[in-house]
Amino acid sequence: MTDEEVAAEEVGGETWALLPAESLRAMRRVPGLQAAILDAAENGGFAELVNLLTAYHLVYEKGPDAPAG
Question: Phi, psi (5° rounding) for residue 61?
């Protein structure tokens, strides 16, 4: 399978959090934070994602696919 075919299969997903531009700019200033946020979501779930966003004082809104609770 080519990289393009793999990428095409992975399109989609769930939107757990919406981050405004100010949070995205702040994320870019911290080396490795973008990867850490993805890792938290993939391996720790929504609760871990929220914990990490909160720890870095990143503003977010719950996305349409965020788990209830």
Answer: -120, 145
Residue pLDDT tens, the chain, 69 long: 787 776 666 666 788 999 999 999 999 999 999 999 999 999 999 999 999 999 999 999 999 999 986
CA-based end-to-end distance of the chain: 39
The full length of the chain comes to 69
Amino acid present at 39? D
Angle formed at CA 57 by CA 22 and CA 60, multiple of 5 degrees: 60
CA distances for 26 relative to 20, 53, 66, angstroms: 10, 11, 22
